[in-house]
Write a structure and sequence with these properties.
The complex is a heterodimer. Chain A is mostly beta strands. Chain A is 0% helix and 50% strand. In chain A, a hairpin with a 4-residue loop joins β7 and β8. Chain B contains no helices and 10 strands. In chain B, β5 and β6 form a beta hairpin. The chains are: A mainly beta, B mainly beta.
Chain lengths: 120, 104
C-alpha cells in the first residue's frame, strides 16, 4: 500500500545543514508531486516545498527559499530535502505528503514526520 | 498571497451534534484548490475534502464540504467520538490556522 516515511531529523545548531529523506512505497515518485509541510510544536501547518512528478518544477516557500532544496533518487524512490543555513525558526516536525492529482488538489498521503530542532 | 482564516478557534460540542467550521479566504479563490484535513494528536493530517466539496477515499458521508468565492465550510453531521480533532483548510500553499473540535 501507499506509504511515505521521513527520516533524518536531528538536533542541529543554527547555521548548520541537515538532509531529510522521504522514502515512498506503493507508488512511484515519478508519478506524483511530493510536498514538504512542517508543523511547529502545538502550532499549525506550514507548506515548505514541492517537486512535481516529472521533477521539472520545484517551488519553495519564501521562508526557506535560497536555503532549502529538493532532490530525488528515482532508482530508490526517495526524496530529499536539503536544509542549509538552518535557523531556530526552522524547528518543526517535517512531513512529506503526496499530491493527490497534480500539485495542489489535496495531499492524500502523509508520512508520520521527522523532528528537526535547531538550537545552540 | 491569499490568507485563510478559520473560525471558530475552538468548537465545544457533544457527540451526536453537528459541527460547522468556517474557512474564509482574503480574496476569491477557485474551489478546485480548496481542501480540508483532520489531524489528531501525534498523527499526520488526513485529507477529508478536496475540490471544496469532494470527499476523499474512505471519508464517511457525515463530512460535507461546501462554499465558493471567499467563504467555505466543513460540516460534520452527528459527531462521532473519533471526530474530535483539529481541522485545517488549505488553498494552494496556504493552510488556515485550524479549528479544534473538542468534547463539551
Amino acid at each position: 500500500q501507499v506509504q511515505l516515511a521521513e527520516s533524518g531529523g536531528a538536533v542541529v545548531q543554527p547555521g548548520r545543514s541537515l538532509r531529510l529523506s522521504c522514502a515512498a512505497t506503493g507508488f512511484s515518485l515519478t508519478s506524483y508531486a511530493i510536498h514538504w509541510v512542517r508543523q511547529t510544536p502545538g502550532n499549525g501547518l506550514e507548506w515548505v516545498a514541492v517537486v512535481s512528478d516529472d521533477g521539472n518544477k520545484r517551488y519553495y516557500s519564501n521562508s526557506v527559499k535560497g536555503r532549502f532544496s529538493i532532490s530525488r533518487d528515482n532508482s530508490n524512490n526517495t526524496l530529499f530535502l536539503q536544509m542549509n543555513s538552518l535557523k531556530v525558526e526552522d524547528t518543526a516536525l517535517y512531513f512529506c505528503a503526496r499530491g493527490r492529482v497534480d500539485l495542489w488538489h489535496g495531499f492524500d498521503y502523509w508520512g508520520l514526520g521527522t523532528l528537526v530542532t535547531v538550537s545552540s | 498571497e491569499i490568507g485563510l482564516t478559520q473560525s471558530p478557534g475552538t468548537l465545544s460540542l457533544s457527540p451526536g451534534e453537528r459541527a460547522t467550521l468556517s474557512c474564509r479566504a482574503s480574496q476569491g479563490i477557485s474551489t478546485d484548490y480548496l481542501a480540508w484535513y483532520q489531524q489528531k494528536p501525534g498523527q499526520a493530517p488526513r485529507l477529508l475534502i478536496f475540490g471544496a466539496s469532494s470527499r476523499a477515499t474512505g471519508i464517511p458521508d457525515r463530512f460535507t464540504g461546501s462554499g465558493s468565492g471567499t467563504d467555505f465550510a466543513l460540516t460534520i453531521n452527528r459527531l462521532e467520538p473519533e471526530d474530535f480533532a483539529v481541522y485545517y483548510c488549505q488553498h494552494l500553499a496556504t493552510f488556515g490556522g485550524g479549528t479544534k473540535v473538542e468534547i463539551k
